[in-house]
Amino acid sequence: MGEKVVADGFDLSDRQRYRRKLQQCLAGLARLLAEKRFDRPRNLMGLEIELNLAGSDGMPRMVNGAVLERIASSDFQTELGMFNLEVNIAPHRLGGRVFDRLAEELRTGLGYADRKARELDAGVVMIGILPTLAQGDLVSENLSAVDRYTLLNDQIVAARGEDFTLDIHGVEQLTCTATSIVPEAACTSVQLHLQVTPGRFAAVWNAAQAVAAVQIAVGANSPFLFGRELWRESRPPLFTQATDTRPPELQAQGVRPRTWFGERWVDSAYDLFEENLRYFPALLPICDDEDPLRVLDQGGVPRLQELVLHNGTVYRWNRPVYGWVDGVPHLRVENRVLPAGPTVTDVVANAAFYYGLVRALAEDTRPVWKRLPFEDAAANFDTACRHGIDAELRWPRPGRSGGVAAVPAVRLVLDELLPLAAAGLDAWHVEPADRDFYLGVIEERCRARVNGASWQVDTFHRALASGLDRDAALAATTRRYAELMRGGEPVHRWPVGIG
Asked: Is the separation of the CB atoms in 23 and 17 below 8 Å?
């Protein structure tokens, strides 16, 4: 039983024990759901932003450890690459002037972090993919010095059994290989959390899946990778390929990738946790001593650590989260769709649009997921990533027999989704001043047909036209982006060009 099956530090007995513990955790989750043991709804939202570190020349800086020492705040943490940080904002109750408060907290925290980073010529940049990253930057030597990142990298590399292939066909084509998962670190995102009751989970998750493409269309901010202009939001194809444990033969057999949009609407949170167990082998088979069923029999609440750990290695764009605070369990939907940036105002506007829209769609008497085939939702996501604010999306038409038709994303947002988002924010009891200001940012973005990706592309091409070579144009675009980001005006107001 102790014989090694792969040279990755875990033997067969480890994996068998872990598999049994996962089954016990899943049974424990089912009991918790049946017994309605979860925290009551408190309308709590949470926010995390992944960040890049870049110097005054626009180039990445591999100094996150030193920057974190200077910041000296538990709100900031490492991320996968040495040029990454992450900031975590304490949960807020949806309502009132929550978005203005959130914006002020972000400006204060990010401004402080930026000042500390600039002491090392490594300012903070909120952007989906740093345009100046080169393939040579994303190597195992630049993995953050954290044991869990090293272990995760080793496990994915061992499962893959060969180099990772990046092959993205966009405006231009990128084809290269990598020996580690570090290219994933190029993807910096915003994660939006919403605590929900078990009874509302499916409706919220389904609604979030339905609008993921719309979020990307209005919020795309990642058009470049390794000097190539690819998709308007290049994070999803990069993330999918950089974490793909499947060798080519398993890909050809239809085995699902660990970065996954999904394949169906769901009826409960249990569906997603069960799929994660059924479809994806364990990467980190580490067990604790908790017996979840015994804890339940004794009237306690299990932490379900193995289920939580495994869930964190399946990269859904809308992820189910089981949490445990002060002996009380809760469920969250974690929305991982959006890229970071461009500004605090843009980030908060994206959040307001999401929370309002999901609330309205989840409570609709004719749910969108009953009228939109899941295949269309998945295809919409791909289309939005490719084309950004110029995407056309398939969406149910008004009326009981309207069917599904293609509509420009900006028209869909302006004509149908912004009024829904406003109604959703009203249902959250958000003050009209917050509602109108932040949804107004989304409206003006759509009217101008400008988001972070379109600004980057237009500015880059203008820099090329001015006589700069490709690398210099990308660096100039990055420097100008960082300057305007710090200025704080939302991206639809940014002048095109390097200034």
From this structure: no
